[in-house]
UniProtKB/TrEMBL annotation, chain A:
Its EC number is 2.3.2.31. It catalyses: [E2 ubiquitin-conjugating enzyme]-S-ubiquitinyl-L-cysteine + [acceptor protein]-L-lysine = [E2 ubiquitin-conjugating enzyme]-L-cysteine + [acceptor protein]-N(6)-ubiquitinyl-L-lysine. It holds the Pfam family UBA_ARI1. Keywords: Metal-binding, Repeat, Transferase, Ubl conjugation pathway, Zinc, Zinc-finger. GO terms for biological process: protein ubiquitination. Residues 1-32 have a biased composition (Acidic residues). This is RBR-type E3 ubiquitin transferase.
TrEMBL record, chain B:
The keyword Transferase applies. PROSITE patterns: UBC_1 (PS00183), UBC_2 (PS50127). Its EC number is 2.3.2.23. It comes from the Eukaryota. Residues 2-148 form the UBC core domain. Belongs to the ubiquitin-conjugating enzyme family. Signal peptide: none annotated. This is E2 ubiquitin-conjugating enzyme. Transmembrane segments: none annotated. It comes from Mycena alexandri.
């Protein structure tokens, strides 16, 4: 069962083939867990392009099933209970091989380090009183023990919580196997603070220096019990904290697993599995754009672990009915809200940065952060001294400039030497003078690199801006078409809105591609390859601009059929051009065809 | 909000049975804010110094550690010029079972055993690592200068 289990690490499977055989019989009781897994088989995506990597989206419970499988694997090998196995795995960051190796070297040391007392079959949370429980102090790696621990027992034997000093008669102590007792309210507050405030999934015993980790069942009991307690805050908070705890465990597992990545969109709890992009070395040849499968904004208030995707486009039944705003989301709302959660599996960019690879995209974003505003300001507010090239800001006064550094005197307007100006001090009409031309020439050379950067940056930023504007425009257009539908009773306009929506979506997608082609072109070394790349870029850009223009054309009831025809044709064409750009660039990466004018991680250094 | 029983009891005990070389008294208007003095431990360069500190118990105490800061200038690799202290139990190694008393004893112990390998004041730590004798001399000077009463 576990050998054909498709998410598990291949390497591990190969190493432990023998164990897999043994596990066949043990797996029968885990079948229920496996069944859940089957529900999360890839939701087959439509036509996959060559440059798309195979990936699949997993819900939180699917990831939990993966974790359970790992736990089961370890449980089978070590013969420990599930709670111990999962504490061990968490301690070693879910690295099964390392765990097995270390465990074989010294099981007891490993168990102590992971915060499990001893490998007993059932070390379930003991809710025994401190009385009677032999307080075994675990070996500690703690700092100085400063003073004797507070007494948790009074002479008369009644329990006093060492944390809150509550001595109410009949107060019962809760403790882990170590026997360090505390009252339930303190445990609740402690576990809650660990999980909520510190985002910590391992809650160690409260006693100073005690390294025992509270098992999940203990945490659950403590949290759910504290919920009932009025003093612990509103009802259900304990349950919510336990949900958060489970989420933290999943996040930890995902962070430790190479082929998994958490969806970076706020409030989303989905995970994407992309074995093709695990490891940094592949990132020079592929751009692992993935999507977690959820569309739209996920309510961050929701604490439930399963997130339902936002509703599919409502189909209006019954022919003539106009779109009712109450029960169906308008197409533009859906566009704005329902954007797919796309992100890059290989780097922190939370959108599609194809066609450019992660390393180059990161370089570009860093440059933009550092440079673009400064560069724009320098360009519009300063000039360089024609003689020593110092950058000079003119912050007042006349056009007679004297360079502070080299004392060169020149005219701010024509950049020529001041000596040629004679007595016309306050106005410059000497544009054609040779001195001025030379000065401007040298100036322009020194500005060339800045200009080059701004050329790419402005186009990069412009595409993003245009994409946003297209969405705005579409919402206006849509409204207008709906109004016309109501007044003129044209039923087919409903379909009309759909073609507009498709076109806008395509424009948005292509503008994202175009945006990143500018980042790529900025770093591409000069040559035939770059020329070809820019040809493709130009064709796509032309097509996208044409389609954008079409979308902006006035809409009248009479011209809608022709408009629809034109837009649909153009949309198909744009789609093709986009595919060409993406495919060609992706092939180029695989063939190692692109060379850069800077050094990029993982690529050969530029020649020169 | 009423003061938790834990803080009341701890305060009572601190006043009734103070740890040797340590005083801690809460402010009248804010019972979570303590004025603290710690005597420099014998055998350390801080011997005979009286160091003033402030200690504050945050709302989450004892689930969160108290905030402690030196007010007296001190030349120590784990205490920076703002008086902030680098001590594991004040950060990630905090346990709700620790108390004001234990924290202050740990701070006192830190004075006897500086740890230049985990520095908060890198220049002092460098001095301590390269020329311990000289550095301890400076610590003594500072103690005489700033902590002599």
């Amino acid at each position: 069962m576990s050998s054909d289990y498709e998410f598990s690490d291949e390497e591990v499977d190969n190493v432990f083939d023998d164990d897999d055989m043994d596990m066949q019989d043990q797996d029968s009781d885990a079948d229920s867990g496996m069944d859940i897994l089957d529900d999360f088989k890839p939701t087959t995506t439509t036509t996959r392009k060559a440059y798309d990597l195979p990936y699949e989206s997993l819900t939180q419970s699917a990831v939990e099933a993966l974790m359970a499988a790992d736990v089961e694997h370890i449980r089978g090998i070590f013969g420990v209970d599930a709670s111990t196995a999962s504490l061990l795995l968490r301690h070693l960051n879910w690295n099964k091989e390392k765990l097995i190796e270390k465990y074989m070297d010294g099981a007891s040391a490993m168990l102590v380090a992971a915060g499990v007392t001893m490998p007993e079959p059932e070390p379930a949370p003991s809710t025994t009183s401190t009385r009677g429980a032999g307080a075994i102090r675990r070996p500690t790696r703690k700092t100085k023990q400063a003073s004797p621990a507070p007494t948790s027992k009074k002479d008369d034997g009644a329990f006093v919580c060492p944390i809150c000093f509550d001595d109410t008669p009949g107060l019962t102590a809760l403790a882990l196997d170590c026997g360090h007792g505390a009252c339930g309210a303190c445990w609740g507050a402690y576990v809650r603070a660990k999980i909520r405030d510190e985002g910590e999934h391992a809650c160690r015993c409260m006693a100073e220096g005690c390294a025992l980790v509270a098992p999940d069942v203990f945490i659950k009991d403590v949290l759910l019990a504290s919920s009932e307690d009025d003093a612990m805050g509103e009802d259900g908070e304990g349950a919510a904290t336990y949900v958060r705890f489970q989420e933290l465990l999943v996040r930890h597992f995902v962070a430790c697993t190479n082929h998994l990545k958490f969806c970076p969109h706020p409030g989303c709890t989905n995970t994407v599995s992309c074995p093709g992009a695990a490891g940094r070395s592949v990132l020079t040849t592929i751009v692992p754009t993935v999507s977690c499968g959820v569309r739209g904004v996920v309510s961050s208030i929701s604490t439930s672990s399963t997130i339902a995707p936002s509703p599919a486009p409502a189909t209006v039944a019954g022919g003539k009915k106009p779109i009712s705003r109450t029960n169906s989301m308008s197409a533009s709302q859906e566009l704005a809200r329902g954007k797919e959660h796309k992100f890059c599996f290989g780097c922190p960019i939370d959108s599609d940065h194809r066609p450019v690879v992660c390393g180059v995209a990161a370089l570009w974003l860093k440059k933009c952060r550092d440079d673009s505003e400064t560069a724009n300001w320098i360009k519009s507010n300063t000039k360089e001294c024609a003689k020593c090239m110092s950058t000079i800001e003119k912050n007042g006064g006349c056009n007679h400039m004297t360079c502070k550094k080299c004392k060169h005197e020149f005219c701010w307007v024509c950049m020529g030497p001041w000596s040629e100006h004679g007595t016309a001090w306050y106005s410059c009409n000497r544009y054609d003078e040779k001195g001025g031309i030379d000065a401007r020439d040298s100036q322009s050379k020194s500005r060339a690199s800045l200009e080059r950067y701004l050329h790419y940056y402005n186009r990069w930023a412009n595409h993003e801006q245009s994409a946003k504007l297209a969405l705005d425009l579409f919402s206006k257009t849509e409204k207008k078409m709906e109004e016309m539908q109501v007044t003129s009773a044209l039923t087919w306009i409903e379909v009309g809105v759909q073609f507009m929506k498709k076109a806008v979506e395509e424009v948005d997608k292509c503008r994202m591609t175009l945006k990143w082609t500018y980042a790529m072109a900025y770093y591409l070394a000069k040559g035939n390859q770059k020329d070809l790349f820019e040809d493709n870029q130009r064709d796509l850009e032309k097509a996208v601009e044409d389609l954008s223009e079409l979308l902006e054309s006035p809409i009248e009831p009479e011209n809608i059929p022709t408009l629809r025809q034109k837009v649909t044709d153009k949309t198909v064409y744009v789609q093709k051009r986009n595919t060409i750009v993406l495919e060609d660039t992706a092939d180029g990466f695989l063939e190692d065809r692109w060379s850069w004018n800077v050094s990029v991680d993982g690529f050969d250094a530029p020649e020169e | 909000m009423a003061l938790p029983k834990r803080i009341i009891k701890e305060t009572e005990r601190l006043v009734a049975d103070p740890a040797p070389g340590i005083t801690a008294a809460p402010h009248e208007d804010n019972l979570r804010y303590f004025d603290v003095t710690i005597q420099g431990p014998d055998g350390s360069p801080f011997q005979q110094g009286i160091f003033k500190l402030e200690l504050f118990l945050p709302e989450e105490y004892p689930m969160a550690p108290p905030k402690v800061r030196f007010l007296t200038k001190i030349y120590h690799p784990n205490i920076d010029k703002l008086g902030r202290i680098c001590l594991d139990i004040l950060k990630d190694k905090w346990s709700p079972a620790l108390q004001i008393r234990t924290v202050l004893l740990s701070v006192q112990a830190l004075l006897s055993a500086p740890n230049p390998d985990d520095p908060l004041a890198p220049d002092v730590a460098k001095h301590y690592k390269e020329d311990e004798k000289g550095a301890m001399g400076v610590s003594r000077e500072w103690t005489a200068l700033y902590a002599s009463g």
